[in-house]
Amino acid sequence: MTAYLLRRLLQMAPVLVLISIVSFSLTFVLPGDPALAILGEQNARDQQLYAQMRAQLGLDRPLPVQYLDWASHVLRGDLGTSTTSRQPVLLLIQQRMGPTLELGLFGFILAVVLGVSVGVASAVRPNSKLDVVGTLVAMAGASIPHFWLGLLLILTFALWLRWLPPSGYVPPTQDVIGNLRLMLLPTIAVGSGGAAVLMRQVRSAMLEVLGQEYITTARAKGLTAGAVTMRHAFKNALIPVVTVLGLQIALLIGGAVVTESIFSIPGVGRLAADSIFNRDFPVLQAIVLLVAISVLIANLITDFVYAWLDPRIRYG
């Protein structure tokens, strides 16, 4: 296992280098000029002032030199300075990390609980009313975009029924109930897609496992339906489900950008959206890099969960 971990970390190194190049290239791929965004249209007409600002930002140097300088600072934990607020990028991300982690955790829990429970129930009773309803809900959840579902939730539960507040954020340390009320609609918006995909995957995997011979043998021995389903079938059906869970983490992060913007949640996703509009490229570069690293770590954890679920898997 240790050898496998070291090998995977070595394999991640060139991927991280490629990701860093892509993150750094955002400055030159996206439209806009950071120096122009800082100075404004009128001040940028002063060519001397404009040249000084580009020199201050390091944009007048060759691209390889700029990349090596940026990468060396990143390795030391310095993600740069925001061109908009003039604050350290790492500090801005740390301030916004709490709401994003909370939204991602709630969305992940919703996807797992709803997707697994309905998927197992649909597999145990195929073609039943629950299976039909679950299939329809899964198709709707997988096809409706996050932003559209978020708007529908606000329109229905905040404006029409007036059950929940439409947007905003309160830290749980200040008001737990208020935090849960504000996070309920964003959680549904960001977690429904993952629950739908997971629901169909669990149902498909469970149906395949329930048709195996050892399940028939377990039933012939007189085991209860619950014991056969959860002790024998469910664990063996989790291998493909874990793969889907690993992929859902990336989707949750991507959905957080739109969801936080719709519900006015001051998280990292909202920070990324604001950095795009304000052409704050240092912030955007850092967020893209951190998100990519998070996805790589999630995939690594997924591979290790395989070995825990299936003893036949050994990493040499």
Helix-strand blueprint:
Layout: H1 2-29, H2 34-43, H3 47-57, H4 63-75, H5 89-124, H6 129-143, H7 146-160, H8 176-210, H9 213-220, H10 225-236, H11 238-262, H12 268-277, H13 281-309
Helix pairs in contact: 1-13, 2-3, 5-6, 5-8, 5-11, 5-13, 6-8, 7-8, 7-11, 8-11, 11-12, 11-13, 12-13
The figure for the number of domains is: 2
Q: What is the percentage of strand-forming residues?
A: under 5%
Broad CATH class of the largest domain: Mainly Alpha
Structural class: mainly alpha
| H/I helix tally | 13
Q: Note poorly predicted spans.
A: none
- Rg result: 24 Å
Overall mean pLDDT stands at: 82
Shape: globular
Quaternary organisation of the protein chains: single chain
Tell me the distance between the termini. Answer: 7 Å
Order of helices and strands: HHHHHHHHHHHHH
Under CATH, the topology of the largest domain can be stated as: MetI-like fold
Give the second-level CATH assignment, the architecture of the largest domain: Orthogonal Bundle
Largest sheet: none
Query: What share of residues is helical?
Result: over 70%
How would you describe what is shown here?
The protein is globular, with a radius of gyration of 24 Å. The protein is built from 13 helices and no strands. It has 2 domains: 32-78, no CATH class; 89-309, MetI-like (MetI-like fold). The longest helix is centred in the middle third of the chain and has 36 residues, at 89-124. The mean pLDDT is 82. The protein is mainly α. The chain has helices spanning 2-29, 34-43, 47-57, 63-75, 89-124, 129-143, 146-160, 176-210, 213-220, 225-236, 238-262, 268-277, 281-309. Helix 5 (89-124) crosses helix 8.
